[in-house]
Amino acid sequence: MTDDASRFFRQCISTIFVTIILAACDSNPIPPVADMTPQVRVFATAATMISGTAGYGSGSWTYTDYVYDDSGAGGFDYPAGSPHNENSADAVLFSVSLTENAVRYTMRLNTLIESNSTVFAIAVDSDNRSDTGGGDWPYNAKLSSAGWDHLITAWGDSATVSFPDGRVATVAIAVDLVTNTIEVDVPFTIADPDRGMWRLRSAVGLWDAGTSLWREVLVLSADASAPSGKSDVSLPNAFNLLFRNRTWDGGTALTDENDSGSFQSARQEAALSAGDIARFFRDVDFGLITDRVTQAPPHPQADEQLTRIYESVATSNTYMEGRNFPPVGQASDRRIYNGLFQPYILFVPGSYWEAEQAPAPLSPMLHGWLGDHRSFNPADDDYWQLVRDQRVLVPKPLGRGEEVWYEHLGELDILEVIEDVRRHYKVDSDRIYLAGTSMGGLGTLKIAAAHPDIFAGIYASVPPLSDRTHGYVVPESNEWDLKLVADSLRNVPTQVFAGTIDAVVPAGVDPEKFCIRLRELKYDHDCWRDLLGQHASYDAARASEIADLFLNHRRIENPSHVVYANEEAFRRQAFEAGIGEFLSYDRVYWVSGIRYPDALVDPEFPPSEPIDTSLEREPSDVGGLGRRVIDGNRISRIDIRSYGNGDGEPVVREFSETPIERQDSLVRQGMEVTVGEAIPLRNGFDMTLTLIDGLDLDLSRMKLSAMNLTANMSVGVDQDVALGLLLGSTVTVCQAMLGGLPLDVVVSGHRLELVAPLTSEAQVFSLDCQI
């Protein structure tokens, strides 16, 4: 049968079936279509994951919306609590594909706790004529558009297809509350696109199961269980309007939402307030879907800010989906954005494309308190010129909220954003530089200390050292002090910028304390204080120093000396948030499988055995609230030096500059650390542990061998330590001794395991394996 004959046959059959079925309207629903399991996989290659754009792939077409933009005509409020959690009408991905006998429409929402909480509608103009069909959308949507020939409405366990003449047919629907997916199949017998082009408009709102209508959004309501926020009762009941297209992908300046505020909803609000959604549409080519063409919009080659989204690995955690307010007693603005998808802004300089095949540096910038991913917009200053000159990709994460202080999910967000950029762009993994201002400066120090093996260097402006210490933001006691984990930055050059007359984060209190600790440790650092400076980002002012970081520092993948300090509170926060498997802090450089004392992962967290430290201790209870403050007793610490690569003791050059010398208001102090003169190679290492139950060492990355290996080992308090050695090659027989006494050894392939009874006095460990 020819294509024309096939199309004629399908159109005839379609006409016959539509005539029969629609004559009965709702009384004769379409039988459920087979294979209605939500097909989340169709998004894998079709979705651009760039908000305001769409693409074809794997036999589908997918549009990517913005997230957390569900404000309706402006300031819409959800009913309080579950199942809405301030986010249940937030469309993220919308896909169109074909089954054997139907058009399949798939909507993924950021939050979907109950299937009957949400409704979405799709107005389809199948003949590309605005003068036919059209009119008001059904079910109290209070939306209207010209030209639609049929309109799909889906909610709960029901979906219908409405026609301008009032006919209605029921079609099959499937809902998956795990992936937040709603699928609707519209049989070809009702509407057959063949290989044509259909124009779509779509919106999402709340569903009223009692009235079987779009839920009415009130102007004002004293009832927290009712949605509200309209300025006029006649406004649409939609919370989210789709197809706010980028100018470089089918849109105009009137549809491009990318630069319109924190959560990019200004164009949506204007359209819904005016009751005119005509320009917000997408044309879908079913010929491209049928032919399984892969097609994405061309990426702009000039400087461009993109709103990207990714699906978090931590979709199952202890917080409810949506926007979460904190427990009673915490600051009300510490909401956590906990939808399945998270946004970030990515600045891609035009220079990136000039050498597209060459990996580019990456420098995530973390926002301050009450900021979001829309912070740090590019400007014509020295810093952003440096970014352009060096082809630096600059992602700006949300960090799961405006005031999460980069704890638990906020910390994980930064790591996931880095990985997401790596998936889509060519990133030089040896040139990742973390940065931030104020709370973002804190996040910079905190995340780099927790994951130092990711970064080539860091630069932080006006960073506090704890989440709420010294009265920051709310009068609560801090749970951690970053000065006590600065030890982890041994191989990460650090720049800190501060203002002396900063009333929010006084330079003498926190940034200076951190710099003093780096000087005590003799680590590579460059600290600047502006005697006239206030609370601000110093990136542009210190662009030349940041340029030195970009140009002269690369990540040290296998350092000869690893120091890692980790605070119990970080692990507890990850455990309580239900993401301990993703933030286990169990590896750094060539150390992996780190096991911490059981007390540190128990929900009750009994006090650990007191360990004397040389660090200054903070008060045990600030503000009289009874909250424990870290005092050094709960810092787990690893200090291991390998002699396998011949690196000598580091050479430290201390430098300082005064305002008189500089003839300005700047004070500069720091240290430049370089590799010392080579020493004779030795097949051995030194290891000192504190509050560590076990770990694994990769001997090949340490440049060591399991033949005639020696080590000096000690712990803070006498204890057994489970030691695993990754050997790099298969061994048959091994003999191990500690302090002259034999140890039992278990060998399995390339791995050796033993338990070493270590003491506070260093003991000699020896190992000899036959390879």
Core attributes:
771 residues, eight-stranded mixed sheet
Describe the structure.
This protein is α+β, with helices and mostly antiparallel strands. 15% of the residues lie in helices and 31% in strands. The protein is built from twelve helices and 41 strands. A hairpin with a 4-residue loop joins β11 and β12. The N and C termini lie far apart (69 Å). Residues 1-42, 469-476 and 600-632 have low confidence and may be disordered.
Q: Which secondary structure elements does this structure contain, and how are they paired or packed?
A:
Blueprint: H1 3-23, H2 43-46, E1 53-57, E2 60-64, E3 91-98, E4 102-109, E5 118-125, E6 135-136, E7 144-145, E8 150-155, E9 158-162, E10 168-170, E11 172-176, E12 181-187, E13 197-208, E14 213-214, E15 238-241, H3 266-274, E16 282-285, H4 286-290, E17 304-311, E18 323-324, E19 336-337, E20 341-348, H5 351-354, E21 360-362, E22 365-366, H6 382-389, E23 394-397, H7 409-424, E24 427-437, H8 439-450, E25 457-461, E26 494-499, H9 511-521, E27 525-530, H10 543-552, E28 561-567, H11 568-576, E29 591-595, E30 635-642, E31 648-657, H12 659-662, E32 666-676, E33 684-690, E34 694-698, E35 709-715, E36 719-726, E37 733-738, E38 741-743, E39 745-748, E40 751-758, E41 763-770
Parallel strand pairs: 21-24, 22-24, 24-25, 25-26, 26-27, 33-35, 34-36
Antiparallel strand pairs: 1-2, 2-3, 3-4, 4-12, 5-8, 5-13, 6-7, 8-9, 9-10, 11-12, 13-14, 13-15, 13-16, 17-20, 18-19, 20-23, 27-32, 28-30, 29-34, 30-33, 31-32, 35-41, 36-40, 37-38, 37-41, 39-40
